[in-house]
């Protein structure tokens, strides 16, 4: 089966011109579905008693060839005639799922092992993750076309972390992360077009083109930070402000497995615990700090225990429900005044460290492919939704198409919007100050800076 | 509280008080803490110890744990925490026991504080004050004696302030705390205990000194002396001696290093035609070097009758033995010598 999938994958890659191993078969099919009508073979669903539609037809024999059908050949595809008459009451409104138990450190109990998911939530998480996925792939494309320059650290593979955390906290809570920040920039409320336009360095970017990939900000979202580990004390400071102001808000402070060895983290853990700051420290362990695997960097890879006196959870970061339940648990812990908590999310990035890293010199393509096929966060959620009749294939495909369109439009904007005007070069040095003069490159060049 | 600790002595003049620099700083912080709930102080020993140099004496007793926070010895950590708190709406005063220790945290000062407003195109201000003693003390040797004025003044996004007397200390600290931007506030340990007269108007709770404006401490016509912090006093002492020999010095107290008040210096040079800069820091790439460059690039260059002279600390790590230490920093006689050389008298 694995070989069959590899053959299909390679064939499809050649058709679409993408390099092998980068995407799951289902993603490639989704990509191809723009050009031809496809159905993926529906899983044998456990049909709940209240569903009225007929059980799906078994997948067509003959494998890939039959999946790629022409537009005219419609009548024998499952569900083709049912689409127009499908009603919402056909879907399961809510289901409960078993999720992986979290390893705990200095905790009596961990998050629940069952998670409830409504149809609306499922579709929302799907949409969020798929949007981040497509946005990151679009950034990859734009970078290869040299429309995006400098650093570009992509988040594809880790979507469940951003989506799960956002589902567990309030918009009034705070979040800060490091440089692999595009996913969180989106979940914290910045539009795709403002993100892509920031990456392309245009005036319509969220930071007017002055920040770039690593420096995007939004209300209650503090970036986007380029210096590894520096965001962790900042996050604790934000938590201090929450505590100081007594507003019952918390701060989610993210860092990676690489940053986990920074000294300033341990300084921060000490103060956060001492002062019981309402801070969730989240280690996104994607197994590699740039090109160095966790085993080669850390004497202890139990990142959830590295806070020593701070309680910790180790969470399956590829399962959005697992992340959500753990984040809820952690948020409750903080809001109850118990002090900080550490959450290690075990996740994976498909891309290399950044766009200048192919990502295959320190790990195998097989490893990447294995994660894609077995643990892709979007696929996991999709399977759950479909196999529990919480959504239909067509519906999800429709969402995919919509997202593609949104991302494409955003990319259009990001490539056509003008660059920031030179007159604004020196603006935003100081806040709330009268205009000042800034020296240009030579003594006769006197530039103006406005707050 | 601070009032009762003030060294209060009415001089012969009407409406003046004698206040040490330490008390002026203490008063300024007290008033700003009272005025704005978002202001708080954190650092090593600032609370229960009353401050390593007693600058925050009495504040913890008055304001408590929430507003005056003792930190563990974790400069990088607590400086980052302070910056994060500023980003989230508070107005921290982050004390470094000396600025030598700020090197541990310099990434947070520069990359997290100074650059953020620019990188975010105005979305994220960082209203924070980093303060503490800077430069040489007495007998504390190389690792505890460095002047960081030039290091911090190099960076856009920061304001760097260096008060000399009590009025400077009070007005500039209040201005710094009220400023919505990161301000590096360089104090001097040897100045803490020095009393100065303060005017009545400086006692107003809203008394601030504008950041970015220098002050002419002494008018003169033959030569301009420019300095900051403790060495302003040395310049005034030199000027007093030189006056007896018929050399009339104008002494400028920079007060702010960045943004530097170049116009004030230029205006003075265009009058006196001679310039000597005096600083405690090392010569290379320092404050004096910057002043020379700026004078050359501006209108005052053509008014110079001689090249600018820099009087600086000796280009060595600070030694311990008293005689060596004394001779590592500008003394009044060095200033007098340099003035005469510049004037060719």
Automatic annotation (TrEMBL), chain B:
Give the record's keywords alphabetically.
Answer: Carbohydrate metabolism, Glucose metabolism, Metal-binding, Mitochondrion, Oxidoreductase, Potassium, Pyruvate, Thiamine pyrophosphate, Transit peptide
Primary localization: mitochondrion
What does the record note on quaternary structure? Heterotetramer of two PDHA1 and two PDHB subunits. The heterotetramer interacts with DLAT, and is part of the multimeric pyruvate dehydrogenase complex that contains multiple copies of pyruvate dehydrogenase (E1), dihydrolipoamide acetyltransferase (DLAT, E2) and lipoamide dehydrogenase (DLD, E3). These subunits are bound to an inner core composed of about 48 DLAT and 12 PDHX molecules. Interacts with DLAT.
Domain Transketolase-like pyrimidine-binding, by residue range, is 19-194
One of the GO biological process terms? pyruvate decarboxylation to acetyl-CoA
Subcellular location(s) of the protein = Mitochondrion
Cofactor(s) for this protein? Answer: thiamine diphosphate
**Entry's EC annotation:** 1.2.4.1
Q: Which GO terms describe its molecular function?
A: metal ion binding; pyruvate dehydrogenase (acetyl-transferring) activity
UniProt protein name: Pyruvate dehydrogenase E1 component subunit beta
One Pfam annotation reads Transket_pyr
Tell me what reaction this enzyme catalyses: N(6)-[(R)-lipoyl]-L-lysyl-[protein] + pyruvate + H(+) = N(6)-[(R)-S(8)-acetyldihydrolipoyl]-L-lysyl-[protein] + CO2
Q: Which SMART domains match?
A: Transket_pyr
Give GO cellular component annotations, separated by semicolons. mitochondrion; pyruvate dehydrogenase complex
Identify the species of origin: Poecilia latipinna
